[in-house]
Automatic annotation (TrEMBL), chain A:
InterPro entries registered for this protein in UniProt: SoxD, SoxD_sf
Gene Ontology terms for molecular function: sarcosine oxidase activity
Organism per entry: Mesorhizobium qingshengii
Protein name as it appears in the record: N-methylglutamate dehydrogenase subunit B
A Pfam family the protein falls into: SoxD
Top-level division of the source organism's lineage: Bacteria
UniProt record, GO biological process: tetrahydrofolate metabolic process
UniProtKB/TrEMBL annotation, chain B:
Source domain of life: Bacteria
Pfam families: SoxG
Organism encoding this protein: Mesorhizobium qingshengii
InterPro entries the record matches: SoxG, TrmE/GcvT-like
Name of the protein described by the UniProt record: Sarcosine oxidase subunit gamma
Length: 91, 209
């Protein structure tokens, strides 16, 4: 598998580290225990389109958000994760 | 209080043995030169300050700092892309140090002195690209990786900054490699193994190529 880093171009998988599901959103302060438990521990085991965080640690050290299909391994989009590069915050 | 006298030493001073190594009876196909005693400052834009850093760098260096994987030559320094909104300033002779760069750049950027945290290795020779192909997944063909190209990548599971400098006087391509000081010896041995079959010329220099 190769990932096209938006900063570096196409690179081999060995340069990247998988962090996990990019879907969970941190609950607001004061959220219920169930919501926090869900955010911290519960993950879907998706067969199909997923959104994941990957870290380009062997390259530009940017965090990336990768849309990948777990059935075909097809990667449909790679974009900088929130905070990757000072100029691209919020991109 | 005790007085300390700090002596800077190359991370390769034990591993590097000057001379010709590897294949005998052929002209060395790879030449490895460690560059010693350089100034290297990492410049990283503060959050949301990339445009301000670009402006400040332009004013300081007279050329635009790289915003893509490139290495840019100024009159007395090389600016090497090292990631989104960050670059290295490589120079010699205390022209660009923390002290001299901070007034110009520390408002939009964080600076960090990496002079003694990296080893700098110049790789050239007729077989340099073939040797590097064993270690790197980057396509270094001159059409894809011309002079001024740079890459933040990994070799032998070690993070490196690789860029193509100006050709040597004999016209041969020169690849420059920055590697973490503590990984330098390991990568050096790996490169030596990869280059041995072509014959290797090993040296060190005080001059940036």
């Amino acid at each position: 598998m190769r990932i096209v880093c938006p900063f570096c171009g196409e690179r081999e998988l060995g340069e990247f580290t998988y962090l996990g599901d990019a879907k969970p959103v941190r609950p607001v302060a004061g959220a219920s225990e169930d919501e926090v438990f869900d955010y911290v521990y519960l993950r879907d085991n998706v067969a199909g389109a997923t959104s994941e965080y990957w870290y380009h640690g062997g390259g530009c050290r940017a965090w990336l958000k990768v849309a990948r299909n777990t059935l075909t391994h097809e990667i449909s989009s790679v974009e900088p994760a929130l905070g990757a590069g000072a100029a691209r915050v919020g991109a | 209080m005790a007085d300390f006298s700090w002596v800077s030493r190359s991370p390769l001073e034990h591993a590097l043995v000057t001379g010709t190594h590897g294949a005998r009876g052929v002209e060395a196909g790879v030449s490895l030169t460690e560059i010693r005693n350089f100034d290297l400052i990492q410049v990283m834009a503060r959050r949301g300050q990339a445009a301000e850093l670009a402006k400040a760098a332009m004013a300081r260096f007279g050329v635009a700092a790289p915003d893509a994987p490139k290495a840019v030559q100024t009159s007395d320094a090389t600016l090497i892309w090292s990631g989104p909104d960050q670059f290295f300033v490589l120079s010699k002779g205390s022209k660009h140090t923390m002290q001299t760069l901070a007034p110009a750049l520390s408002s939009p950027a964080s600076l960090s002195d990496q002079s003694h945290a990296r080893a700098l290795i110049g790789i050239s020779g007729s077989k340099a690209r073939i040797m590097l192909a064993k270690l790197s997944s980057i396509d270094l063909h001159p059409e894809v990786f011309p002079i001024g190209s740079a890459a933040a990548t990994s070799m032998d599971h070690t993070s490196v900054t690789l860029w193509r400098g100006g050709n040597r006087p004999d016209g041969q391509a020169l690849f420059n490699l920055l590697v973490f000081a503590t990984f330098a010896e390991s990568l050096w041995h790996t490169m030596l193994d990869a280059a041995a079959e072509y014959g290797v010329d090993i040296s060190h220099s005080e001059e940036l190529a």
